[in-house]
Each structure stands twice: as structure tokens, then as C-alpha cells.
Design goal:
Radius of gyration: 18 Å
Largest sheet: 2 strands, antiparallel
Order of helices and strands: HHHEEHHH
Number of helices: 6
Helix content: 40-55%
Distance between the termini: 37 Å
Shape: elongated
Strand content: 5-15%
Mean pLDDT: 90
Number of strands: 2
Length: 145
């Protein structure tokens, strides 16, 4: 399984809002400058996040984006499933009709275990944890100047 640029940038966008949007709205221009991602690309991603009610927008001079919930209420898995769809590494990773040999193939054990491991990781890392890690990284960068 390979996570697309859209998935990776969506996580970075959400982390940026979690870190910088505690007290104010965050503009896409600000996020673009910090994350080195074009505003145009961020606009595509923010539309998905807005539609899913992960973020809300406010217009005007102090406009921008904020999270609709606390960072602790979002997981990496939520964000990736929104942008990537199913995270299963193969069609036969889950009990579905995409695999005619599901349940009768020795390798299905491998794909099932990989799928479980992926879900366990992405569903147990919160946006809050990533935001804290981002703040630590920012401190280290600022101390090395």
C-alpha cells in the first residue's frame, strides 16, 4: 500500500491547523508557506475535509479554517480513509467479493494480518499526538538557529 500525496498532505494540513488554529483561524496561504504545498492543492484537500465536517471555514479579515472537533478526536486513519478510501493492501485483505478465493487461500492470512497491522497503527495515532510532535520539532528547529 502506498499513501498518495493527497493523503500525506491532508494529514500535514490537519496537523498545521491543530497546531496553529488553537486561538485563531488559519488561512490556506499560511499553511502553504509552512508546509511548502501550493494553495491550489490545499484547496482541493480542504474541500474534502470540509465536506466531511473535519474543518469549518470563516470568511473575512480574520477568516480561515479551524477544526470542528478537538485534535484528540481525529485519527490518522480517519483522515487517510477520507482521502485514500479503503486502506486494505489487497482486495483479499477483507472479507469481500473482490477475491474469489477468499478464505480458501493460504496467502490470505498474510494480507489479513498486514491489513490488521495497518489499521491498528493508523487508528491509534491521533491528530493531537501529531500536533504535539510537530510542536516538539518546531522547538528543536528554533533552538538550532
Amino acid at each position: 500500500m502506498k499513501i498518495s500525496t493527497k493523503g500525506r498532505y491532508a494529514i500535514r494540513l490537519m496537523v498545521d491547523i491543530a497546531v496553529n488554529g488553537e486561538e485563531k483561524n488559519v488561512s490556506l496561504k499560511e499553511i502553504s508557506e509552512r508546509q511548502f504545498v501550493s494553495v491550489k492543492y490545499l484547496e482541493q484537500i480542504i474541500c474534502m475535509l470540509k465536506k466531511a465536517d473535519y474543518v469549518k471555514s470563516e470568511r473575512g479579515t480574520n477568516g480561515g479554517y479551524k477544526l470542528t472537533k478537538k485534535p484528540s478526536e481525529y485519527t490518522v486513519g480517519m483522515i487517510l480513509r477520507l482521502t485514500e478510501g479503503n486502506l486494505a493492501p489487497t482486495p483479499c485483505s477483507e472479507n469481500n467479493e473482490n477475491c474469489k478465493r477468499f478464505g480458501r487461500c493460504a496467502t490470505s492470512l498474510v494480507w489479513s494480518k498486514i491489513n490488521e497491522a495497518i489499521n491498528d497503527v493508523v487508528d491509534n495515532i491521533t491528530l493531537e499526538e501529531l500536533a504535539e510532535k510537530e510542536k516538539e520539532c518546531m522547538c528543536k528547529c528554533n533552538n538550532n538557529k
